[in-house]
Amino acid sequence: MRVRELPPGIADREALFDALAEALSFPDYFGRNWDAVADCLSDVEPTVLRVDASLWDHAPELARTLVELWSETEGQELEFVRKDASTVRADGSDVHTDGWTVRKDESNERRDE
């Protein structure tokens, strides 16, 4: 399984779509929306996508949507990586980072621990 990384500092949807398109070599016709991401992912070889965990700090809605999309995509893996090298794996099971829990088949919740 190949490994690709997104750059740190992504704070908006357009930057995320641009980074995904570059990292995963999406075709030129990629429509830069969530449906287009899902369509393109089905054509991408199995990949571990590493995302800087600061996305949860800068754009938590984007992070949750990314996790939800990846959890629905067969053969793809998503990891959130902190600068200190800790990793939070997003494989469709619970994902915990900075107090957020994302579940594949339930609503998103904020945990205050």
Helix count?
A: 4
Helical fraction: 25-40%
The N- and C-terminal alpha carbons lie at a distance of: 35 Å
Main sheet: which strands, in order across?
Answer: 1-2-3-4
Let me know the largest β-sheet: 4 strands, mixed
**Assembly status:** single chain
Please state the structural category.
alpha/beta
Mean pLDDT: 77
Q: From the alpha carbons, calculate the radius of gyration and give it in angstroms.
A: 13 Å
Q: How many E-type strands?
A: 7
Regions with pLDDT < 50 over 5+ consecutive residues? 91-113
What is the element string, with H for helices and E for strands?
Answer: EHHEHHEEEEE
Shape: globular
Beta fraction: 15-25%
Question: What this model shows, in words?
Answer:
The protein has 113 residues and is an alpha/beta fold. It contains four helices and seven strands. The strands form two sheets. Strands 1-2-3-4 form a four-stranded mixed beta sheet. The radius of gyration is 13 Å and the shape is globular. The relative contact order is 0.17.
